[in-house]
Sequence to fold (489 residues):
Amino acid sequence: MKYLMLLSVLLPILSGAALPLWRFKVRRSREAYVLTCVCATSLLVLTLLLKRPEGSMRLFPLTSTLDITLRLDGLSGVFSGLVAFLWPLSSLYALEYIKHEGGDDRFFAFYTMTYGVTLGIAMSGNLLTLYLFYELLTLVTLPLVMHTRDKRSVRAGMKYLGFSIGGAACAFVGMMVLYHLGDTSLSFVYGGFVSDNASERTLILTAYLLCFFGFGVKAAVFPFHSWLPSARVAPTPVTALLHAVAVVKAGAFAIMRVTFYCFGTAMLRGTWAQDIAMGFAVFTILFGSAMALREQHLKRRLAYSTVSNLSYIVFGVTLMTPAGLTGALSHMVFHGVMKITLFFCAGAIMYMTHREFVPELTGLGRYMPVTFAAFTLGSAALVGVPLLPGFLSKWRLATAALEAGGVLPLLGVAALLISAILTAAYLFTPVVNAFFPPAGEGSHGLEQARDPNLYMKLPLFILMASMLALGVGSKGLLSLLSRVAAGQL
Fold:
């Protein structure tokens, strides 16, 4: 079973790299190739999750103590499962969307490779392996951000690259301190592997913040967030994965790893390092929501919403309790489903009507009922309406913060409440305008508007059903996440 971990990582990477060599002349052949590779990978991940292999798989040594290693523990399973569920839906959606963008072979080559690299991050057995895949993620997603090759996409790509390199440099320094003061194998151990040495405490806490902000670049923690709204110029299937699954969740996942599995919360809790990390998370929650409210471009509005919601996850992690990590994991999973739905809707609107700004959506609801039904449900879930998944994860985050006590956790609860109000304002405004336009408005120029074809609608139907199922039937999942957060899996 251990070899299935390696196969699940290599299959999409090698399949994506080989795609341009086939030189498909028939679009249907390329579509079949991409979907077969992606679905086969997801089936491999499902097999691993159902029968999780014990121990690590050593791929090759780098030093006498450091190896490139794969391992599937509870935390890996959560991230891998989320990725494996959403990637086939996103690939199906992309098959139709990318038709008007061009460069299909190049796009799907990097798009498919990104799947394998993301699984490599999820299944890394130590910090060095995670770091190497994390760097590779930047390289394989950069061509996707710059896919259209116009000035805006090149600028966005260069900003993304610059922020990512800077963050990686900070994380690398923190990793070297861990190597010097902790376990030289850098293997993930729940509770951490760094000894609490009073004479080295300042250095250890500084190293933690370097890792936090270094990996926090991809998690869009303020002030390292601006690359994310800029990346909205990429094709919607790319932004959907950037904002819902691959890049941003990889950043949040890495912060979970270094906090709970490298440094350990016993040493970090109650320190100035925890206060700084939590303070930035709380501020980013409010900042992202406020910026989303003032933004009129729909994809940029959703991008700033992602900035805010990622720090919901980071806030849960910085509480440094099992309850906080449970809330963070639940929001990581639920936000992935909710946000990819919203981006798919935004992409469908742009694809069918070429409209990008919120005021231009007036009256579209009656012409694109499936798209706006999905957008409405996703918006209600993200706001935190009861019986939908966003409510469950926000409730767990808030209760974990109240249990933790202290000024910053209470400020975090206040930030969650304020952010929910702002989220309702910036998401329900376009919904109301789309379904209930002012008298005399909303019909001019919309006669040809309609929902997209099945390639783009089917993922929306599946995601809507998933949100409803998660809202009313996630007791087992939340129990599983609690066990992962307690280090029992």
